[in-house]
Design brief:
Length: 235
């Protein structure tokens, strides 16, 4: 499969509208949806508080992932690394990254908070203005082929400049490795975009549908508010 370069992606802004009307779609587990989709709950395996071995997404988001997976070559599959996150998991991720930055020499204050916000949303229980993963409309994923996970240039949750979705597009270098990463990221990006997802430009693995960020980027209304627990489901 051949795909064009990843286009310039719009930057982020703090002007994100609240959710005016929750659509009521339930969260559903991903494991049994299709053989073309594998669940690897990264935060569960890394021991984050509250993380579970199953990954859940809004039903509409999950169904769109199935359409993406079925467009992959026969020996390829999607690998979903994270989906809906409880407030407990989000707080655990946020605090661990905060401790990492402090260990690197950052000091408490506005600059530290700003750096945190580039990569990890601040934990919230506000269901009208939820963080992306709390809504069940954000998904972190990659692609696996016959020989394992494709080379995307960085691991999942790499917080360096290399993780930016278009980083390898902007390099003048044309080595075999750079070209391989470009092609792999292009495949993920374009298949996800065709299914209606939007990408977070700092993270090649992060896509959203139906969220507040998605609404701002597409000019539509957000349909997914926050979900604070797996049960009861939204009505």
């Amino acid at each position: 499969m051949s795909f064009p370069p990843i286009p310039n992606l719009p930057g982020e802004t703090n002007e994100i509208p609240p959710v005016r009307q929750e659509c009521g779609e339930p969260l559903i587990p991903l494991s049994a949806l299709t053989p073309k989709l594998t669940v690897y709950a990264a935060y569960y395996h890394q021991g984050y508080e509250g993380a579970q071995p199953e990954i859940y997404l809004r039903e509409g988001v999950a169904r769109r992932l199935v359409t993406v997976a079925e467009k992959l070559p026969s020996e390829y599959r999607l690998v979903v690394l994270d989906g809906w996150r409880s407030h407990i998991v989000q707080a655990s991720i946020y605090d661990r990254f905060r401790q990492t930055l402090l260990a690197q020499g950052w000091e408490e204050g506005e600059q530290l908070t700003a750096e945190l916000g580039k990569f990890v949303a601040k934990p919230t229980t506000d269901i009208i203005k939820p963080s992306p993963h709390l809504s069940g409309g954000a998904v972190d994923l990659t692609i696996a082929g016959p020989e394992g996970w494709l080379d995307m240039g960085t691991p999942f949750d790499d917080f360096s400049d290399l993780a930016a979705t278009r980083y390898f597009e902007e390099l003048t270098e044309t080595s075999e490795h750079v070209q391989t990463v470009r092609e792999n990221r292009r495949m993920l990006y374009h298949l996800m975009a065709e299914a209606g997802f939007v990408n977070y430009p700092r993270e090649w693995w992060h896509y959203e549908y139906g969220t507040r960020v998605w609404a701002r980027k597409t000019g539509q209304e957000a349909i997914y508010g926050g979900i604070l627990s797996l049960s009861p489901q939204p009505q």
